Amino acid sequence: MNSADAQRDHLLSRMRLRIEQDIFVVRQFGREVARAAGMESQDQTRLATAISEVARRMVALGRDVEVAFFASAVQHPAVRVEMVSPITDGQEHLVPHLAQVGRLVDTMEVDDGDTGTTVRMSRRLPPGAPPLTRDRMTEIREGLAAHVPGTPLDELAVQNQQLISALDEVRAQRDDLARLNAELEETNRGVMALYHQLSEELEETNRGVVALYAELDEKSVQLRTASEAKTRFLANVSHELRAPVTAIIGLGRLLVDTSSSALDPEQSRQVELIRSSATDLLALVNDLLDLAKAEAGRMEPNWSDVDLRAMFGQLRGTLRPLATRPEVDFLVEEPAVPHLLSDEVMLAQVLRNLLTNALKFTATGSVRLTAQRVDDDVEFTVADTGAGIPAELHERIFEEFYQVPGAKPLNGTGTGLGLPYARRLVGILGGAMRVSSEPGIGSTFTVCLPLRQP
Ligand code: ADP
């Protein structure tokens, strides 16, 4: 077959229907065409049934019906049937019935014009069917020409046979369905068992989690109680210590007072030592008391409009005496934010603490205090070019009594309570404190406070 042939339908046979008996003939013939073209038995029956159904309706309309069979290779190899009646159906007899018949074939269309009615249908050949070559089509044509139609009784016998095989197939399908149902039931049982097992495991896990939470709650209550006890203890001890230590300092001062002193120089030196130790002890006791108060939540901020310029001026003045080294520039810059709603005493205490630390640990370079606005916050930074703190200790320095091992303050001493206290105060003021620092380069402590209180 050349390509032009491939685009055309090839007439295989033609016949004319006049009387009802012809319906049997066309049915037989249709099956014969389907068989000759290579369709399987079920498809032969489908096509034959569709043809005979349409034929029945068209013969009922009256007059002759022309039936033509084609081998079609327009898109896919198929058998195409065209049935033409000279009578117009008026959409009444044929169309409503053909929807169901149409399912037996691949395409079906009804052309219901003024000059008559044409029904076209086609059914594809299966993939394994012999190709529709020119020789093959001649062979089919000759076979059809030689075909002798049987009697209606023959056709009935054939139909019976087809009915039996269809019934067999239905039975086989029913058996398949029953088997599938049984399998499905089995699977369902499996799924249900798995579901039960999973929900039991989930319940078990939930019970465990609930118990764990109960234990956690209990532990956190114990922790809170222990922490409160510690705070109470610190507050009481430091309070009780303050009076005797202050007395020791006073007495020491009296003893070494040159006008009334009956001590020789060595005794004076020793009393001076006692006095200086007692002063350190008093500083520690005071720090402890402050921290205990802050931890006990007994410190309420006294909110007011803080004049930052004035506060910075005061810090500059009071800390200048500590910045004794000519190698260190002590710089308190003008604050970029002039006012802030905060607690003046607490904020000054925090900044003083950070500046004192910076001066204590900076041998050369600078110690600088700044304040600027960042979004809805005010950021205070205390930056120094001092000893610095290793990264792994950045959190530990906020623990009570922790001091970086080997770090010696250049002047004064320390208790290790300054930073934890400062961080608490910043928390009370609704802000946060962070540090960035590198050994040998310096440290920057940043205090971030909200510009407006909620
Ligand atoms: P201290 O009374 O010892 O200063 P802090 O709680 O204020 O206690 O500080 C804890 C430790 O953190 C200090 O002992 C010091 O080792 C380290 N530290 C704090 N500030 C600085 C700083 N600016 N530079 C270097 N080390 C610092």
UniProtKB/TrEMBL annotation:
Residues 236-453 form the Histidine kinase domain. It is an enzyme of class 2 (transferase). Its EC number is 2.7.13.3. Residues 153-201 form a coiled coil. It is found in: Cell membrane. It catalyses: ATP + protein L-histidine = ADP + protein N-phospho-L-histidine. Pfam families: HATPase_c, HisKA. This is histidine kinase. It comes from Mangrovihabitans endophyticus.
